[in-house]
Amino acid sequence: MNILVAIALWLLIIVVATAWHELGHYWAARAQGVAVKSFSVGMGPIIYRKMIRGTEWRVSALPIGGYVEIDGMAPDADRDGKLRAPTRGFAKLGALGKIVILLMGPIFNLLLALPLLAGYYTTQGVTTPLTDRASIGSVTPNSLAQRVGVEAGDVIVAIDGRDIPDFYIVDGKRREGYRQVQDALALPGRKSFSLERDGRTRDVTFDWNPKDDKGERRRFGISYGPAILTRQVAFLPALGEAVKTMVTGVPLVLQAFGNLVGNLVTLNTNPSADSGVSGPVRTVETVGQAAQLGAWSVLGIAALINLSLALFNLIPIPGLDGGRILLVLVQSVLRRPLSFEQENFINFLGFAFVLVLMVFVVFSDVARFF
């Protein structure tokens, strides 16, 4: 697919997800009588503006997000230009009111992701990975795999006469059973794969050495992953599946974030140490692949981006919604507000940390191609 079309689709998804997120903050603020000075779709130079009910609605030139300016969230400037803590709007609310405003952005993203995921599941079906089977995605022409009769679409159900388990333990770590294919091809010797094709099972046997005569690594010539079971569901059951996806997504996002921080600390950009966090390059690639599969696949990606945006914003890093909520709770427990300088410094550190993470993700993304 044309790379420019993929980039345009990705930017559209990002702008819609961000604008919807900010709309949640806007709605919660206005519901509590807090003024909203401006609402921008996009960032950077303003190309269109219109005042509606006390809010300046803007369209900005750079389609890379958006923002909402809630009265009393940003510091005020006195006549000498010095910044001071605000005393109105958001700043005057109690802890619960502030948390509602901060929480409503991620909640809006979740509310948008829910029907998008349900629609995707209704049209495309709900997929379940079968870890006790290895599905062959592709076979390299003229490879050993092709010569012994392996074809794309085959499913490996047994290796050397032993059924593939759901999971197995290696060095104390749990691994999905289909990864035994990799383990088998890492060792020399006579190998046997039991292949399932068109409802029938046949064995292919071959002699294998993972290194050639020069000692360099050989490739068997297959790409594979867990077999996928797809079942069709109606919209209401699909909503339940969407909720399950959201719940199971929480530990996955936290794990990916932890992996990302670990890679940042060790400056590890090796593709084999993939954190699970996709940068713009890989996301554009994914959107382009989804677009080739159809509109619902793109909406499925949009749902996952909304889900990721919601969960990431809830991580308690200063500067993000989760970090701001944490500061509100800390001040409630202490029963005294932090000084303006303290809160401003904490948020500055949080923003700097997030910026460093973003730069590292982009750098790691680009490093994959080299």
From TrEMBL:
Its cofactor is Zn(2+). GO terms for cellular component: membrane. One of its GO terms (biological process) is proteolysis. It is a multi-pass membrane protein. Belongs to the peptidase M50B family. This is Regulator of sigma E protease. PANTHER family: MEMBRANE METALLOPROTEASE ARASP2, CHLOROPLASTIC-RELATED (PTHR42837:SF2), REGULATOR OF SIGMA-E PROTEASE RSEP (PTHR42837). Residues 136-193 form the PDZ domain. Gene3D superfamilies: 2.30.42.10. Keywords: Hydrolase, Membrane, Metalloprotease, Protease, Transmembrane, Transmembrane helix, Zinc. One of its GO terms (molecular function) is metalloendopeptidase activity. Residues 11-357 form the Peptidase M50 domain. Its main location: membrane. It comes from the Bacteria. It is found in: Membrane.
